TrEMBL record:
UniProt xrefs under Pfam families: PHD_NSD
SUPFAM superfamilies in alphabetical order: FYVE/PHD zinc finger
GO biological process: chromatin remodeling
Name of the molecule in the record: Histone-lysine N-methyltransferase NSD-like PHD zinc finger domain-containing protein
Length: 320
């Protein structure tokens, strides 16, 4: 039908899939009533809600919702609302028809990236480019400069639409306040009020990628693949150290709690002094120990580069 929706066979109330020659319509298409993609309120086709002009879209909208979300549209000439269908007007010169009886024609926001089409950011970028061009002209440089391409412009690429509205993004244009995984996207307006569908991490693409990365790291450190779960955990601990603040997440295999003799003696003196002061203070409102000092007393040391980093890290680039 015109909504372009897909259904599981049991969810559609059928025992088997229809053949290719049979026309099948969902309940909304049979009643000629569809829900607005913005407000989710149902309305009669071509009377209350109107379809996007793209053939493969299938989304319907109220005209008021189009205006509210700044969707550009125009009225189709010769088409007026009549009952539950759009009919042609024979008198094209009839200007007495109210615009409220006209059929809006539009392309919804599902067919353009939200990030690439922000008008205020486009205008801001134009102003910055004009100022930069003006300053370059004043300098009078004769060097041929590289032509800058605009960030906020429509570019090709697949669009990923939000589950609850027509807002769509390129995969590289998803803003930080949106949420997504390999199954669905929640736009910046629905990320805080809705949840993403459950993702089976054991059979997900993300787990497969992480598994390949772990196997590559194991091979780099000389560990074989055919090992039990306990052996892999022991190998992981040997590569990255124990869990806690002493683990270095940026330089795998290096620990952040390596000190020379002077540093160890200083830390030992600080620990003994802090314990003595704590024993002398018996009041309930005694000042709390500083967080860093508390971690020292607990045996946890915040990350810092070890003193022998030059001996363990080969930071020099290869010779050409």
């Amino acid at each position: 039908g015109p909504c372009k929706k897909v259904f599981h066979i049991p969810c559609a109330g059928m025992s088997q899939a229809p053949t290719g020659d049979d026309d099948w319509f969902c309940q909304d298409c049979s009643r000629k009533e569809h829900a607005c993609a913005y407000c989710s309120e149902y309305g009669a086709d071509f009377v209350d809600v109107f379809p996007c002009k793209d053939n493969d879209c299938g989304l319907f909208f109220h005209e008021a919702c189009l205006r509210l979300h700044h969707v550009d549209y125009k009225y189709a000439p010769g088409l007026i609302k009549a009952g539950n269908a759009a009919v042609s007007s024979d008198d094209e010169d009839d200007d007495d028809d109210d615009e409220q009886n006209r059929i809006p024609v539009f392309s919804c926001h599902a067919h353009q990236c939200w990030t690439c089409t922000q008008k205020d950011m486009i205008q801001l970028e134009k102003n910055e480019r004009a100022l930069a061009q003006k300053s370059n002209n004043k300098k009078g440089s004769r060097k041929k400069r590289k032509k800058n391409t605009s960030i906020y412009q429509c570019k090709p690429g697949r669009l990923y639409r939000c589950l609850y509205c027509p807002t769509a993004y390129h995969i590289t244009c998803i803003p930080p306040n949106a949420r997504f995984h390999e199954l669905a996207v929640l736009c910046h307006e629905h990320s805080m009020t809705h949840k993403l569908p459950e993702l089976d991490m054991n059979d997900s693409m993300q787990s497969k990628v992480e598994s390949k990365i772990d196997e590559a790291l194991m091979r780099m450190h000389g560990f074989s693949r055919n090992r039990s779960k306990k052996d892999k955990q022991d190998a992981w601990t040997k590569m990255y150290g124990k869990r806690g603040l002493s683990t270095n997440p940026f330089l795998p295999g290096l620990r952040g709690d390596k000190f020379d003799e002077t540093e160890r003696s200083l830390l030992s003196y600080i620990k003994e002094t802090a314990l003595q002061e704590q024993q002398q203070q018996t009041e309930d409102d005694s000042p709390a120990i500083a967080p860093t000092l508390s971690m020292l007393l607990d045996g946890n040391v915040p990350f810092c580069l070890p003193a022998d980093i030059k001996d363990e890290v080969y930071s020099k680039p290869p010779s050409y």
